[in-house]
Design a protein that fits this description.
single chain, 443 residues, mainly beta, Neuraminidase, Rossmann fold, 2 domains, five-stranded mixed sheet, 5 helices, 29 strands, globular
């Protein structure tokens, strides 16, 4: 049984067999142009050195900045375990041996000093021009020495890395983001680098989490006391509450609109599923979006401008990805068997730049992640190792998180869609499903 029909069976029979994901709206901020004008050939990754950082937390901060910049896949981190690097870290810009770093292939140097205990002074050096190009002070939140302060402190460092990537490449990084997912009947949260895994809900058979576009709420589906699946809303750091959704049946796969004022979900009846919309923050009536006439319609995802929806529907007999106006009108198939030997395409996610939709497609009996460019409707296969499902775009529209069985147990992996570089995000002993990537937590 395919995952599309399996999910409906899950909801109607209350048997845990699998879960379909949902799409989501994300931050669409994009900074054009290379602000520092470092000299490197277009299409290549400039070499960057992060100098050693003094102080008790210096090694940790440096390691995080190096890792975040590396995970962005737009620069190459150059190791500097040489005597001159340590000396350069304690010196002012004019004393740095620029010719040496040029020979090492560095286009830029990141230098961090402390303006105070809670303020990092960050400078970026232009190696070719042998000068400091930009300096800025970054107040750091939280406290790494207190359990309740570690998460905020780490997110502050991630935000510094994102700003550095913007300075160097013109594109904001994705380090200051988080991913939510379902595992062992709970919703979990993890930082983009795989650290700080925490549960957000009790073990209540919860699934299909979706971020609010401002990262302030998470919507998800969970088993209610009546035996039906309900949509719940959890405020960041707060409690969960049940939303006013369609009564009776099952309510699953929620997703927020880009402005955060509408939540679309799938309501299951005896004969089919349809998409419904509701304002999650006001006592307004629920609106029906699709007219499935007995077909199954679920896993919605908004276009970045909020004017369209992509979703999964089996109205032609097999699950395919459809695109419609946000009110459900003018629906047309996007996939219709493309790149799939069994005409089984589902679980779409619209990229934040609006240029592509990622989805899962059954190929030789296994699901693989596909990205389809919306300009030419050309599908591109991104995965091949194991079973790969439930793609979700990062805010940069370049990276995706998805579920994969390649290690034997379903876990979340992150892929750079341009280079194919992949890293494992979660390392749980239990199965992990339906990851959803947030917008930037620190702006």
């Amino acid at each position: 049984m395919g995952r599309f029909s399996t999910l409906r069976a899950l909801c109607l029979t209350i048997v845990i067999c699998g879960a379909a994901t949902r799409g989501h709206a994300q931050d669409t901020t994009f900074r054009q142009g290379v602000q520092l004008w470092l000299r490197y050939a277009p299409g290549t990754r400039p070499g960057i050195v992060v100098l050693p950082i003094a102080g008790e937390l210096g090694d940790s901060v440096r390691a995080m900045l190096q890792r975040d910049l590396d995970y962005g896949d737009r620069v190459t981190i150059i190791p500097t375990d040489i005597p001159t690097a340590a000396a350069a870290a304690a010196s002012n810009g004019p004393a740095i041996n620029y010719p040496l770093f040029a020979k090492l292939g560095a286009a830029g140097i990141v230098q961090v000093t402390w303006a105070s205990a809670a303020i990092a002074r960050v400078a970026v050096h232009n190696v070719a021009q042998q000068k400091i190009e930009r300096t800025q002070d970054f107040p750091l939140g939280g406290d790494p020495k207190v359990a309740d302060g570690i998460a905020d402190w780490r997110m502050s460092i991630h935000a510094v890395a994102d700003e550095l990537e913007s300075w160097i490449t013109g594109v904001r990084g994705i380090a200051a983001t988080r991913i939510v997912y379902s595992s062992s009947g709970r919703i979990w949260q993890v930082d983009s680098d795989g650290a700080m895994t925490i549960p957000l809900t009790p073990a209540t058979m919860a699934m299909s989490p979706a971020w609010h576009p401002r990262g302030s709420f998470v919507a998800y589906s969970a088993m209610g006391g009546t035996g039906n699946w309900q949509v719940l809303l959890r405020e960041t750091g707060g409690a969960s509450r049940v939303l006013n959704t369609t009564p009776g049946g099952q309510n699953i796969t929620p997703v927020f609109s880009p402005d955060g004022n509408t939540l679309v979900y799938s309501h299951a009846r005896e004969l089919g599923n349809d998409l419904y919309a509701v304002n999650p923050f006001a006592p307004e009536a629920v609106r029906k979006v699709t007219v499935g006439r007995g077909s199954d319609n679920m896993s919605p995802t908004f276009s970045p401008d909020g004017r369209q929806l992509a979703f999964t529907s089996n109205r032609t007999g097999r699950p395919e990805v459809y695109i419609s106006d946000a009110d459900g009108t003018n629906a047309e198939p996007l996939t219709l068997g493309q790149y799939s030997d069994q005409s089984y395409n589902s679980n779409p996610d619209w990229s934040p730049d609006g240029r592509a939709i990622a989805y899962q497609s059954q190929i030789a009996g296994r699901f693989q992640v596909i990205s389809m460019g919306l300009r030419d409707r050309s599908p591109r296969r991104l995965t091949s190792d194991g079973i790969n499902e439930d793609p979700s775009w990062a805010p940069d529209s370049r990276h995706l998180v998805f579920t994969s069985s390649r290690t034997g147990v379903q876990q979340l992996f992150v892929m750079d869609a341009e280079s194919g570089r992949t890293r494992q995000l979660t390392h749980s002993g239990a199965k992990v499903r339906t990851g959803d990537w947030s917008s930037h937590i620190k702006r």
